[in-house]
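Need residues for this backbone.
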């Protein structure tokens, strides 16, 4: 059931954070619309953050295309977009704080070595199953060159166990140490990992509410663990339904998601609203439709 315990949030700041690996598709519009509606229903701000920290996967010009697609759908951010590729100094400062706390360590393992170590331990996993890092380098590199930096999930013999509440999915609890293991914050290719970047960005931008796709719910405990170590506020979370592809998995560019056609945005907005469980709305102009959708969202989630 929806959590209606906090009807209005003074200072509400929400965000939509697309990766510019191509144009928006039907699934990404669902997340954009949900985060925009939640911000508007709370009388708050809605920000757009371009998550281009994984530069090899980014497509030139995709950021501008995404912003144009959002604008055609009437989804305008309340401040200029922030680009992760311009924030490396902020991530470095956060890493320095974590080093000072003694909660990060260098790792020399390749992915293949991690997989081989898990197989040796008798741990077999499926295609989409989280692979738990076995802690190979936790005790030192043993003269091997460092490839990445990992965050400890066991400190002083205490495992990181995180409980949190999702406004739609309800209570969650994850033993990060056992279900994820020490996870990467700085990658072997020299790039910052998503988990660190998103936590630092949400903290710096004052994000109070994270509204995003349900597939990211499993990342939340890791992010809260980081937020607590960095003494950052913990946002509220709302993970919304996904658009599924023909293969039964989340719709994505990898499984054939078509670029979003925003020449006539209302059909796309109506499809996104249907995924979010909103009723059929009658207005035929985008501004009027968004106003009606905000009211419907308020009745569902406030």
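Answer:
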């Amino acid at each position: 059931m929806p959590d209606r315990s906090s009807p209005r949030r003074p200072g509400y700041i929400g965000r939509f954070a697309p990766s510019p690996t191509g144009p928006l598709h039907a699934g990404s519009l669902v997340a954009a619309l949900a985060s925009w509606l939640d911000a508007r229903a709370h009388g708050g701000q809605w920000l757009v953050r371009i998550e281009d920290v994984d530069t090899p996967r980014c497509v030139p010009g995709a950021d501008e295309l995404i912003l144009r697609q959002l604008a055609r759908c009437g989804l305008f951010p309340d401040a200029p977009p922030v680009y992760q590729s311009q924030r490396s100094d902020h991530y470095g400062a956060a890493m320095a704080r974590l080093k000072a706390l003694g909660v990060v360590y260098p790792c020399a393992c390749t992915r293949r070595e991690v997989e081989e170590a898990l197989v040796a331990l008798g741990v077999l996993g499926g295609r989409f199953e989280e692979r738990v890092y076995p802690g190979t380098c936790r005790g030192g590199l043993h003269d091997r060159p460092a490839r990445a930096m990992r965050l400890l999930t066991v400190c002083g013999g205490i495992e990181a166990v995180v409980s949190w509440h999702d406004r739609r999915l309800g209570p969650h609890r994850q033993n990060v140490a056992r279900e994820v293991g020490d996870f990467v914050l700085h990658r072997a290719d020299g790039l910052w990992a998503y988990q660190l970047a998103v936590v630092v960005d949400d903290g710096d931008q004052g994000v109070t509410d994270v509204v995003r796709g349900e597939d990211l719910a499993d990342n939340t405990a890791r992010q809260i663990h980081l937020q607590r170590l960095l003494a950052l506020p913990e946002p509220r979370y709302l993970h919304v339904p996904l658009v599924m592809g023909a293969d039964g998995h989340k719709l994505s560019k990898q499984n054939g998601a078509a670029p979003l056609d925003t020449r006539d945005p209302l059909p796309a907005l109506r499809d996104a609203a249907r995924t979010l469980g909103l009723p059929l709305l009658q207005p035929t102009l985008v501004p009027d439709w968004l106003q009606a959708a905000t009211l419907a969202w308020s009745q569902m989630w406030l």
